[in-house]
Write a structure and sequence with these properties.
By secondary structure, the chain is mainly alpha-helical. Helix content is 77%, strand content 0%. It has one domain. Helix 2 crosses helix 3.
Amino acid sequence: MASTKHTFDAMISEECARFVDDISSRVSSENRPVTVNNLYLEPVNRILWRMMTGKAIESGPQLSELTDSVRNLFRVVERTKMLYLIQVGIR
């Protein structure tokens, strides 16, 4: 169990470092405020993908497709009020 926690912590640390580097490069290259409201989903998806498959997913078409699919899924769930049903079901 301890090695699993260590691996999970390392995964999260790696993705956090990647996320900080991404934001830093956007700030320095654009030299203006950066909108971050849609940036959080990619690091989370990379971590979840790695946990489920055991393989890393790099930036590119696959990650973009995964991120778009997850974003669309949340939109559908929001629109159909399924989120409320899911939350009620958990209790």
